[in-house]
Design goal:
about 400 residues; mainly alpha; Growth Hormone, Chain: A; about 75% helix; MFS transporter; transmembrane transporter activity
Length: about 400
């Protein structure tokens, strides 16, 4: 019989829980990375108006933003496990509706699948917060980094599933892929039954008004940094498969570029925490800004396979440094009792920005072209850089 967390010493049980959360994050992210690889291509093939090719991804990010507030309520009242099970169910439903839309060759049906898929992805963003809750204070930074690094498995698995299963149920291209991706949240549900997660915390005293949290300069810095990191990354990543298709590259080539990009996003999670501990949060965020600017430069230099690969690699690294730094800043802007409210407000802002960039990505790409799309990232990076440089990012609880 397998030992349960109750049978194990406290330190062993803690590390076991972190490893299980790592696997849950990897499974949930696999569906998202797979969708990022093929979503715009499927949208382009199904939509009569080609500027709507990235609409499914935009709707998914809009649902991710919309999940922030109800997810916070579920986590606060019922605890982490019911919330994560609900998220896995949303991801499962999303994959099945995506599959039905592909089977029917219906763009509206395909777009409909983005709603539950986005809700599931939004709830899955809280795995990094759950890691902090199950870990001891000394182990907490490594636990957060490790769970975020679960995306490395997703980065390797998601695009490979797309490459090898796209023709599985031909002539319905990608139908088999979505049915395989539906297995990911099912496996996640099974793992969640093995994780020891803290119950819902009883509410004590009056809750801090959300406007008070939003008004804190440190919160604004953390939220702005996270929004620019995720928004600029999503704007360019979503359009890359489209641009590569227009340049004559096949699905396998664009899947490989997205795979390299996703690995670059998550692999630094094994060491970014150590860089922050050694050099500080702001220098790491600045390095992320510079890497994103390098992505723009590489994208403007040419449209060879190497250009796309190196640009998306720099974009992934830049996202990791900026987003991990923003998550570290966020931990400094609230008291323990304000934790869920601050996390919910932050993710609402971040994924609201991501939804806007996903909506605009296809339209800007169709109307203005690849070069201008990249150049438009630079002003946002400058704003984030100025915000980090202008004031200390601390909060006195």
């Amino acid at each position: 019989m397998l030992a349960t967390a109750i049978d194990l010493p406290a330190d062993t049980a803690m590390r076991r829980n972190v490893r299980l959360l790592f696997l849950c994050q990897a499974l949930m992210n696999s569906a998202v990375v797979g969708q990022a690889t093929m979503g715009a291509l499927i949208g382009y093939s199904l939509a009569e108006n080609k500027s709507l090719a990235t609409l499914p991804m935009a709707l998914q990010m809009l649902a991710t933003m919309g999940a922030s507030i109800p997810a916070g309520m579920v986590f606060a009242r019922l605890g982490r496990r019911p919330g994560f099970l609900l998220g896995a169910a949303g991801s499962l439903l999303g994959s099945l509706v995506f599959a039905f839309g592909v089977w029917q060759a219906s763009f509206p049906l395909y777009c409909l699948g983005a709603i539950p898929a986005g809700l599931g992805f939004g709830i899955a963003q809280h795995y990094r917060f759950a890691a902090a809750e199950v870990a001891s204070p000394a182990y907490r930074p490594r636990a957060i980094s490790l769970v975020m690094a679960g995306g490395v498995i997703a980065a390797a698995l998601g695009p490979e599933l797309v490459k090898h299963s796209r023709d599985l149920l031909a002539p319905s291209l990608f139908l088999g892929t979505y049915l395989i991706l539906a297995l990911m949240p099912l496996a996640c549900m099974a793992l969640l039954t093995l994780v020891s997660l803290p119950p819902a915390m009883p509410r004590t005293g009056a809750a801090t008004p959300i406007r008070e949290i939003l008004a804190r300069p440190a919160f604004l810095t953390a939220a702005l940094t996270g929004a620019v990191a995720y928004g600029s990354m999503n704007l360019l990543m979503t359009s890359t498969p489209l641009e590569m298709m227009l340049c004559g590259f096949g699905i396998s080539a664009s899947a490989t570029v997205i795979q390299v990009h996703a690995i670059s996003m998550y692999a630094p999670g094994f060491f970014t925490g150590r860089l922050i501990a050694r050099f500080g949060t702001r220098p790491v965020i600045v390095a992320g800004v510079l890497l994103n600017a390098a992505c723009v430069g590489l994208a403007l230099m040419g449209k060879d396979f190497l250009n796309f690969t190196l640009a998306l690699m720099a974009l992934g690294l830049g996202w990791n440094f900026m987003f991990t730094g923003a998550t570290t800043l966020l931990a400094e802007v609230h008291t323990p009792s304000e934790r869920v409210r601050a996390q919910t407000a932050n993710d609402f802002i971040v994924f609201g920005t991501v939804a806007c960039t996903a909506f605009g990505s296809g339209l800007l790409h169709a109307v203005s072209g690849w070069n201008l799309l990249n150049i438009l990232v630079l002003p946002a990076l400058v704003v984030a850089l100025l915000r980090i440089a202008r004031r200390p990012v601390r909060f006195a609880a």
